[in-house]
Amino acid sequence: MIRIHVLEGTALVWSVEEAREIRERFRLVGTLVGGLARKPRQNARLGLPLQLLPEEARLLAELGAAVLVRGTETQPPAEGEEPTQASEVEAYRRELEESYQEQQRLAGAEREALLARLAERIAQGRARRREQRGETPDTVEDLGLLDSPFVLPHGAMMVQLPTARRCLGQVERVDWTSPSPDWPHPGHPAHEARYRVFRELWGRGYYLSGGSKFGGDFLVYPGDPLRFHAHYIALCCPPGDPLPLRTLVAAARLGTGVKKTLLLCSPDAGGTLAFTSLQWSGLQ
Questions:
Q1: Which of 5, 162, 183, 223 is most enclosed, with most CB atoms within 10 A?
Q2: Gap between the terminal Cα atoms of the chain
Q3: pLDDT < 70: residue spans in the chain
Q4: At what angle do helices 54-62 and 189-203 cross, to 10 degrees?
Q5: In this predicted structure, what is the pLDDT of residue 130?
């Protein structure tokens, strides 16, 4: 069962296996919003967690493939009980020290192997320098050429940054069918309209992602977004909400400018959906 962690309306998936299952099995894309440990000062490529649209999270929950959970508040330890946080910190420090010792051992072995391969070249170079300075071979520089101790600087130590906690701690399930502070979407007219459109298009085999950067609700792809460009910009129009002509014209012109078709999606009270495609042709 996939665990979707929710907080103030945001749905996050922290496990790489679950993120992969969501994409490969359920054709849901999401958005990676985490930084990469090796390249933290860039945002061209991001990593876990995977942030899901509210519609994506609801679809998974409705299919029975996922549960929504939230972290519980930490309770103070009972009298005489060791705080869990302190023990976790101590365990983390022990792991760091063990990792440092292992990395120092491996780096030292690699240094010894490198010096062994370059020993002859190093000796020849030092012999030339001794000859130039007129020194005798038995100098302090030659004593213990390969026996100097190696100490790995702590600043050069590689540190693992886990994206999913090994122990999730205390969590509790969130009812996705009723609104709550961590999941306020159920019953909201805009969300209900968006979800009906999302479920219908997803059921027809399309891939969908957020479309806010193109002025719509969703971008609709004929296949995996890694292989295809979006064909449509879906704009959801809840029943009874007015759609100003200026907004309609601007959305159609924007869609045509980025080589996409504006798709007006209008759910009605009877449960049916009407789809209308628009493209801006200008004045002839």
A1: 183
A2: 56
A3: 73-84, 136-148, 161-169, 282-284
A4: 70
A5: 81
Catalytic residue among 229, 231, 232, 259: 229
Residue 255 and residue 279 in contact, taking contact as beta carbons nearer than 8 Å: yes
263 Cβ contact partners less than 8 Å away, ≥ 6 residues apart: 220, 232, 233, 234, 235, 275, 276, 277, 278
Residue located via tokens 């946080």: 85
The angle, 0 to 180 degrees and rounded to 10, between the axes of the packed helices 16-26 and 54-62 is: 80
Annotate 82-103 with DSSP letters as a single string: PPHHHHHHHHHHHHHHHHHHHH
The pLDDT value given to residue 23: 96
* Active-site residue flag, 92: no
| 229 is known as an active-site residue | yes
Active site residue 191: no
CA dist list (Å): 189 to 57, 195, 240, 275, 281: 17, 10, 11, 19, 33
Tokens of 60: 């998974």
Tokens 């002509």 locate to 245
> What confidence score (pLDDT) does residue 112 get?
86
Alpha carbons 231 and 218: distance in angstroms, whole number? 11
**165 Cβ contact partners less than 8 Å away, ≥ 6 residues apart:** 14
Instruction: Tell which residue, 199, 204, 192, has the closest CA to residue 63.
Output: 199
The three-class DSSP label of residue 20 is helix
E strand or H helix at 251: helix 245-257
Which among 60, 14, 268 has a CA at the least distance from the CA of 161? 14
For residue 158, what are its two tokens? 């590689």
- Could you say which of 195, 206, 221, 232 is catalytic? 221
